[in-house]
Amino acid sequence: MNVTSFSRSGVSDWILQRASSVIMLAYSLAVASVVIPGTNYEVWSAFMTQVWMRSFSTLALIAMIAHAWIGLWGVLTDYVTVRMLGSLGDRLRFCLLFFMVALLILYLVWGIFIIWGL
Question: What global pTM score does this model have?
Answer without folding.
Answer: 0.83
